[in-house]
Amino acid sequence: MFHVNFIILAAPIFGGWCELITGKLITMAYQVKLFSSGIVIDQFYALWTDNPEKMLVVESFEGLELLIIAGFLEYHYMFSVVFGVVAVAIERLTASILIDNYESTNKIFIPIILTVIVQILAIITAFLALIYKLDIISINATWIVSCMFSSIMFLVVERINGTMGRPKWKIQKGKKYSLFPKISVKKIYEH
């Protein structure tokens, strides 16, 4: 069973599916002409381009409000997941290194602060992507850097907690261990 702190941190990431589905349904409704924007689109336009020939020119946002909201919802979900993965890595690092018996205490301020930071970053980044203040390189850089950072954090946590399921410390009776060492201790007793 997951610890309360991890559940608090992960809930917005999994709850975001609702916003993604809503955004996609609105977008599809425009694509199948269930909703009309008043703009005739005869061909596929590139999502990211600097070539004016490949851009869809829009004179007014009238009739596109729902589509803009849908785009924001989709971007927000994407960046919530990207930044949320980093927050999980930071939380696990905190659990493994900085706080003794982290899983035995409810320090809910840590996941709450991380969740608030993730959501602020996701909202700002989604808005900047929506108004085209971030180019495709910047957007791709967010998930690439996040993946690299999270992978490094995973390796650091694994190195600190033990390698290949073997703890690097003596098992002490009555001591409470963090999640990774608990699994390691259980495996040792099974063998």
TrEMBL record:
Origin: domain of life: Eukaryota
Topological relation to the membrane, as annotated: Multi-pass membrane protein
Compartment annotation: Membrane
InterPro entries from the UniProt entry: 7TM_GPCR_serpentine_rcpt_Sre
GO CC, any one term: membrane
Record has Membrane as a keyword: yes
Transmembrane segments: 6-23, 68-88, 108-131, 137-157
Keywords, in A-Z order: Membrane, Transmembrane, Transmembrane helix
Pfam family, one: Sre
Gene Ontology BP, a term: sensory perception of chemical stimulus
Alphabetical list of PANTHER family matching this protein: SERPENTINE RECEPTOR, CLASS E (EPSILON)-RELATED
Family membership: Belongs to the nematode receptor-like protein sre family.
Protein name: Uncharacterized protein
Species: Caenorhabditis brenneri
The organism's taxonomic lineage, starting at the top: Eukaryota, Metazoa, Ecdysozoa, Nematoda, Chromadorea
